[in-house]
Each structure stands twice: as C-alpha cells, then as structure tokens.
Design goal:
The protein is α+β, with helices and mostly antiparallel strands and 202 residues long. It has helices at residues 5-34, 36-42, 64-75, 121-131, 145-173, 179-201, and strands at residues 46-54, 80-81, 85-86, 90-97, 100-107, 112-119. Strand 5 (100-107) and strand 6 form a beta hairpin.
C-alpha cells in the first residue's frame, strides 16, 4: 500500500486546490446566512428602476413552467424561474440569477409587462448558490442551464470532499511522526460528531 503514497499525495493536493474556490463559496455563504443583520446594514439591497413593456402574445404552453420559459425568452431575460403564480388576470414569477432577482408580472388582458429588479450583491449571491440545489421548489428546480450545471458541480464537490477525507486518512496512516496526534484529533472529531448527532435527535 505504501507504494501508492506518492500518487495519492499528489492527487490529494491538486484535488484540494481544484475545489477550494467552490468550498470557499459555501463557507462564505454560511457566514452570510448566519449574520444576515450585519450584511443588511453593511451591504443593503438595491432596487433598480422598474421596466414597463409588453409582449405581442403570452406563449401559453403545457405547464406554468413552460409558459414562464416562453415569456422570458420573449423578454430576453435569463435565469432560474421560481414559483409561477397565475390567475384569471395576471401571471407573475421571479427569475433569479446569483445576486439579482427579477420579478415579472404580466396583465393577461393587455399583455403589459412590469419588470422589477432587486440587486442583492455578490455576498447574497453565495446564499443562492448554497441553497440551490436543495428541496426548494423541487418540481421545477434546475430549469435554467446555469442551475443544471451548478447542481452537477455541487455533487462533484461532495464526492471530491469524500475522496479528500479518505485520502487524508490514508496519507496520515503512513506519517508515523503524526500518528499519536492524528488519533487524538480523530477521537475529538468523533466525540463532537456524536454530540451534535445526539443534540439533533433529542
């Protein structure tokens, strides 16, 4: 097994460097989610000017999602479509890009469109990336190419983090000078994990 040590060490190093920017996004987003009040004070949300326009025809399709896709194609707006609300008089839905939320409201009788935009900034953009993909709007989630790619990237990062954990233990095993300290750290990690698990299950 020791003959694999150099190869595993090299792969471990470069995999860690490769995923570090994405792990940084998740780390920053966790801080932003935990300190919302501070972020709101130091980096307030900016409302951009409303846009009023119209479309020649509402492209009704098989589902609300397909209808919304047809609408944003006509309006040349890109992003992840969130929950679509529709009644006899109007259709409304948000379209989200990291850091920018665009809300579209269409009058069914006149085909007039009101577009409102909220610029949330780069820090809040990490929140969106952190929470999506997730259980939110599972039936329509991933309706944009960006989010489909981000879902694959998020899955890839999880698998690579599992590899880093396993390869880290493998590398530690052959470092005799670190053997004692390594056992202490593993035991402390197991204790903290067990404590957290018991807290969640109580």
């Amino acid at each position: 097994m020791k003959k694999y040590y150099p190869s595993v060490r090299t792969i471990h190093l470069y995999v860690g460097l490769f995923i570090s920017p994405i792990v940084l996004i998740f780390s920053i987003s966790a801080l932003v989610l935990n300190h919302t009040d501070y972020i709101n004070r130091t980096n307030p949300i900016k409302k951009l000017p409303d846009i009023k326009t119209s479309i020649d025809k509402i492209p009704y399709d098989t589902t609300d999602l397909q209808t919304a896709k047809g609408i944003i194609k006509k309006l040349r707006i890109k992003g992840e479509i969130d929950y679509v609300s529709q009644n006899d008089s109007q259709i409304s839905f948000p379209v989200i890009l990291p850091g920018l939320t665009t809300k579209i409201k269409i009058n069914k009788q006149t085909n007039e469109v009101l577009i409102t935009r909220i610029e949330e900034g780069s820090l809040r953009a990490t929140n969106f990336l952190h929470k999506m993909p997730g259980p939110h709007n599972v039936k329509i989630r991933g309706n944009s190419l960006f989010m489909q790619n981000w879902r694959m990237i998020a899955d890839m990062v999880v698998y690579l983090l599992l590899f880093l954990s396993a390869s880290g233990v493998f590398l530690w095993y052959f470092l005799k000078a670190e053997r004692k300290l390594g056992w202490i750290v593993i035991i402390l990690g197991a204790i903290s994990f067990t404590g957290l698990l018991l807290f969640l299950l109580r």
